[in-house]
């Protein structure tokens, strides 16, 4: 079924070798198994200095033909999307490939009739309903560039992203259900649009029936627009012919500066990479049910709910709700109900469910599970063992998949039942991936049992092409720290067998519940609050979230009760970024430990937040070393 699916450890090593020795031949042989309007002239051209990376240049294709049309002949009635509502009582939905194909074409026609053209940027801000996948694919169908924004981001965060991408169209919902909450998405969009000059049309899909304001001439209902195109008759929407390197989507992610960057992925390479990694890492077999618990607002959802599985003709399960509502048995109930084969989730979810004990697993039939997966942050051994024993019943391999928004798909991971797992190690690079560890001086660290900064030496098909509207930023962020290498921002160690273990970010990016959050972004948001003079944000170990956010804030003391001020600061951060970026702890401090040149010594703040105050290292270069004791004494537990 999947001609390039690797079946044995030996075959992995062989493929790996081939992919490094002759990447062009290797990737051409993989790419041959996709549907092209025209094949490539050249498999790979690259130069990391600019950076300029082109895969399959000269080729013409449409990714939706690979995700939809090509499955129709044999698998028209295979479920493409299984959808489970937030509400366990609400009837689930099944969309076969035929139905999904139809709905994507239909909505693509809606987009066209609303004036969307190839290359236009469309912001999608929806809950996890099938229409989100339909909207995404409909954009791809007509060559519009989607920028999906996670439903937890605030109006301000959306406004920034709309402006950065100069988006002219928005697709949203009236609201979204998440656990016991009803999130007023359209109302957030309305706030984001105050002062916006570029957005011409907002298409609103009905989900919660929350009252919304619909502005004449700008806002239209999804359902009405569908009816309009229906009356036109022919539902076909021919796939736009795209160049291999045409932009497929933009996805904003946090970095070490205050402004999120629009990571750009192009069409052909991303398609090949998500498909290749999906079938190999999870060892997907036809008719299996793949359940990735991420939200499509994050890269994991893009690659392993939508494009990877659908391009492989798989059945992908979309879940609208959260793991702990109505109770902590929700995932296991879903596994039981749909006979899920592959469960791909995040360590933070596992740790949180672990905390609820085993009662929620009792009575749920998990015997359909064959492969478990973890993504988003390092998985600690305790969580690994719990997942392995209680969910996988000791028989399911766990793939610990390391990758990033920028890498498009999984980079370092064991492959289920093919290469061995090692708890807390992502293990080995996939074919095509050449990791290396670098030291502070830009030298590669060779050998075994060593650690350093993780870089990648050569291009892979799914890699970032640019940061939208600012190519230099892409160069500075990823290709300047080390000559001729892509710098991941992660620290990493390599054991005696060549297994890689990711140790966490080495830049100022936090990983909170598997979400990337830049400390500078949070600081900017805190500093917006009246009375705040300065702030410094660091991460600290958090039992469930992996990392928690600790904020040191200098406040002018105005406006009374400090506890209320803290609440106000949280509210400000929620407004500026979204609730996901709210600090877990806020400590008011009289000053921040700075060097004579004015640089905040975050190392010290990190140690204090971690509770590791025994050895703060050298503080003699500080402008005011006595501040350290004051901060230590005021630590929030
Ligand atoms: C971290 C998510 C350890 C890492 C796909 C990376 C991981 C960042 C793992 C990217 C893993 C992701 N083990 N750390 N298996 N997977 N990370 O862009 O720090 O949301 O740089 O992409 O998450 O987060 P992003």
Bound molecules: 5'-O-[(S)-ethoxy(hydroxy)phosphoryl]adenosine
Strand percentage: 15-25%
Radius of gyration: 24 Å
Q: How would a textbook summarize the main sheet?
A: 8 strands, mixed
Question: Level of helix content?
Answer: 25-40%
CATH class of the largest domain: Alpha Beta
Instruction: Tell me the number of strands.
Output: 31
Strand order of the largest sheet: 12-11-8-6-7-14-15-24
The oligomeric state of the chains shown is: single chain
Count structural domains: 3
Separate helix tally: 18
Mean pLDDT: 96
Molecular structure report:
This protein has 637 residues and is an alpha/beta fold. It has 3 domains: 9-64 and 271-505, Rossmann fold (3-Layer(aba) Sandwich), CATH 3.40.50.12780; 65-240, Rossmann fold; 513-633, ANL, C-terminal domain (GMP Synthetase, Chain A, domain 3, 2-Layer Sandwich), CATH 3.30.300. Helices cover 31% and strands 24% of the residues. It has 18 helices and 31 strands. The strands form 8 sheets. An 8-stranded mixed beta sheet has the order 12-11-8-6-7-14-15-24, with helices on both faces. The longest helix is centred in the first third of the chain and has 17 residues, at 97-113. The chain is globular. The chain binds 5'-O-[(S)-ethoxy(hydroxy)phosphoryl]adenosine (WTA). 5'-O-[(S)-ethoxy(hydroxy)phosphoryl]adenosine (WTA) binds at residues 253, 298-300, 375-378, 400-405, 426, 488-490, 502, 505, 511, 516. 5'-O-[(S)-ethoxy(hydroxy)phosphoryl]adenosine is lined by residues 253, 298-300, 375-378, 400-405, 426, 488-490, 502, 505, 511, 516.
């Amino acid at each position: 079924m999947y001609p390039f699916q690797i079946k044995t450890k030996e075959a992995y090593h062989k493929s790996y070798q081939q992919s490094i020795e002759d990447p062009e031949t290797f990737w051409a042989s993989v790419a041959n198994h996709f549907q092209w309007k025209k094949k490539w002239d050249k498999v790979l051209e690259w130069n990391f200095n600019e950076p300029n990376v082109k895969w399959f240049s000269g080729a013409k294709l449409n990714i939706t033909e690979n995700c939809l049309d090509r499955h129709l002949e044999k698998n028209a009635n295979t479920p493409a999307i299984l959808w489970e509502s937030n509400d366990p009582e609400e009837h689930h939905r099944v969309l076969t490939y035929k139905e999904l194909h139809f709905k994507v074409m239909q909505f693509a026609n809606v987009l066209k009739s609303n004036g969307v053209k190839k290359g236009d940027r469309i912001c999608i801000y929806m809950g996890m309903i099938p229409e989100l996948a339909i909207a995404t694919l409909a954009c791809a169908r007509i060559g519009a560039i989607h920028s999906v924004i996670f439903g937890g981001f605030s109006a301000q965060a959306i406004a920034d992203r709309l402006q950065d991408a100069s988006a002219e169209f928005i697709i949203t919902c009236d609201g979204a259900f998440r656990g016991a909450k009803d999130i007023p998405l359209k109302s957030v969009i309305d706030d984001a649009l105050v002062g916006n000059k570029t957005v011409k049309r907002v298409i609103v899909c009905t989900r919660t029936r929350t009252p919304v304001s619909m502005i004449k001439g700008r806002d239209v209902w999804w359902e009405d627009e569908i009816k309009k195109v229906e009356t036109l008759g022919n539902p076909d929407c021919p796939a736009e012919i795209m160049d291999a390197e045409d932009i497929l989507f933009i996805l904003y992610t946090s970095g070490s500066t205050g402004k999120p960057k629009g990571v750009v992925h192009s069409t052909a390479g991303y398609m090949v990479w998500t498909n290749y990694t999906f079938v190999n890492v999870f060892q997907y077999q036809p008719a299996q049910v793949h359940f990735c618990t991420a939200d499509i607002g994050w890269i994991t959802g893009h690659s392993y709910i939508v494009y990877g599985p659908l391009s492989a003709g798989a059945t992908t399960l979309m879940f609208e709700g959260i793991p702990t509502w109505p109770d902590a048995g929700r995932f296991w109930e879903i596994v039981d109900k749909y006979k899920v084969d592959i469960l791909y989730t995040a360590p933070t979810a596992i740790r949180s469910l672990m905390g609820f004990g085993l009662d929620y697993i009792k009575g749920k039939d998990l015997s359909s599970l064959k492969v478990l997966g973890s993504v988003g942050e390092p998985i600690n051994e305790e969580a690994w063992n719990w997942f392995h024993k209680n969910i996988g019943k000791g028989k399911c391999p766990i793939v610990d998949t390391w990758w990033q928004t920028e890498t498009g798909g999984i980079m370092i991971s064991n492959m289920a039942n093919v290469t061995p797992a090692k708890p807390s190690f992502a293990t080995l690079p996939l074919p095509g991936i050449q990791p290396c560890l670098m030291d502070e001086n830009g030298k590669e660290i060779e050998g075994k049992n060593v650690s350093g900064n993780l870089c990648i030496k050569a291009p892979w098909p799914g890699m970032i092409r640019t940061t939208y509207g600012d190519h230099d930023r892409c160069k500075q962020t990823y290709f300047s720290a080390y000559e001729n290498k892509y710098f991941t921002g992660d620290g990493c160690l390599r054991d005696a067998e060549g297994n890689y273990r990711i140790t966490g970010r080495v830049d100022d990016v936090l990983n909170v519940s598997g979400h990337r959050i830049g400390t500078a972004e949070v600081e900017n948001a805190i500093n917006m609050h009246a009375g705040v003079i300065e702030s410094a944000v660091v991460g600290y170990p958090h039992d469930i979230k992996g990392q928690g956010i600790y904020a040191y804030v200098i406040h002018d003391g105005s406006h009374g009760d400090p506890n209320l001020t803290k609440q106000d600061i949280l509210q400000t951060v929620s407004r500026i970024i979204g609730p996901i970026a709210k600090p877990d702890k806020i400590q008011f401090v009289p000053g921040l430990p700075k060097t004579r040149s004015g640089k905040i010594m975050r190392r010290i703040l990190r140690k204090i937040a971690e509770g590791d105050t025994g050895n703060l290292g050298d503080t003699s270069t500080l402008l005011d070393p006595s501040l350290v004791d004051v901060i230590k004494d005021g630590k929030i537990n």
